[in-house]
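User: Design a sequence. Structure:
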């Protein structure tokens, strides 16, 4: 298993960042990333198993932390 806490540099638009953001905004998981930063160009959705795991690490870590957008 990959320890993403020690191998990631969670840059804006990265797989980990996108997973975290989707969880934060209470969106369902949809593994993707933007190679040139969030919403700069098309999202990449065809991922390797390792890339998908990186996205899901960001998503589920945020789910475990309970950090959610307050929509009030």
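Assistant: Done.
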């Amino acid at each position: 298993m990959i320890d993403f806490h020690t191998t990631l540099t969670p840059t804006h638009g990265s797989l980990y960042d996108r997973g975290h953001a989707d969880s934060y905004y209470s969106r369902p998981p949809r593994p993707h990333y933007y190679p040139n930063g969030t919403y700069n160009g098309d999202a990449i959705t065809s991922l390797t198993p390792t890339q998908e795991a990186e996205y899901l690490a960001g998503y589920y870590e945020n789910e475990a932390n309970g950090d959610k957008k307050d929509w009030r």
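The chain has a mean pLDDT of 88. The helical segments are 4-7, 15-24, 49-65.
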